């Protein structure tokens, strides 16, 4: 398929073409969350199966997307956006808390959002892996965005004298890897712990990064 088919324009059923297009897109993404994030998974899903699950036609699919990979890409971004919105809301709500409480609030918000639906975990940590160079680039770009967020928070803590001043990018990258790996393993049942225990462990790791042994609060 060289490109998407042209979608109908004009009003129909009281909705504009843009509103109808947005609704179709949402229905395809909702169906993809179920099929890609559960059974049968992204690699075993066909355009026909996805269209049927969405209650739409394959023609309507090609009006919105070129390939199933385009759907996976859009869904991966959406799942990350949901988590980012939850984290940013937690950041705003915990502005004046001490470091340990603030870090706990932020990571509880992230973990609660991602793990609230096991399909989101599978999309984020399983289905996107190894699909194509394009999807790997997108996955790493989103990971870099999370690293940027951790670095920004670490720098804010350092500015308040609650964390050691340093370049946190390497440490933040390693920490995000720990977050992803632990949440994936917990969701898969490989880690015998409650979600609160998982978050507490991640917070302890983060505090160890921000306040290393020998560092005295207030010192440069």
Descriptors for this entry?
mainly alpha, 9 helices
Helix and strand topology:
Layout lengths: L16 H21 L9 H8 L3 H7 L3 H26 L5 H17 L2 H10 L5 H27 L9 H19 L7 H16 L10
Helix pairs in contact: 1-2, 1-4, 1-6, 4-5, 4-6, 4-7, 5-9, 6-8, 7-8, 8-9
Description:
The chain has 220 residues and is mainly alpha-helical. The chain is 69% helix and 0% strand. The chain has 9 helices and no strands. Helix 1 crosses helix 4 (68-93), helix 4 packs across helix 6 and helix 6 (118-127) packs across helix 8. The longest helix is centred in the middle third of the chain and has 27 residues, at 133-159. The mean pLDDT is 90.
Give a short summary of the structure.
The protein is mainly α and 220 residues long. Helices cover 69% and strands 0% of the residues.
Topology as a string of helices (H) and strands (E): HHHHHHHHH
Uncertain regions spanning at least 5 consecutive residues: none
Rg, Cα atoms, Å: 21 Å
Helix count equals: 9
Head-to-tail CA distance between termini: 58 Å
Structural class: mainly alpha
Q: Quick check: average pLDDT?
A: 90
Give the fraction of residues assigned to helices.
Answer: 55-70%
How does the overall form come out from the CA principal axes? elongated
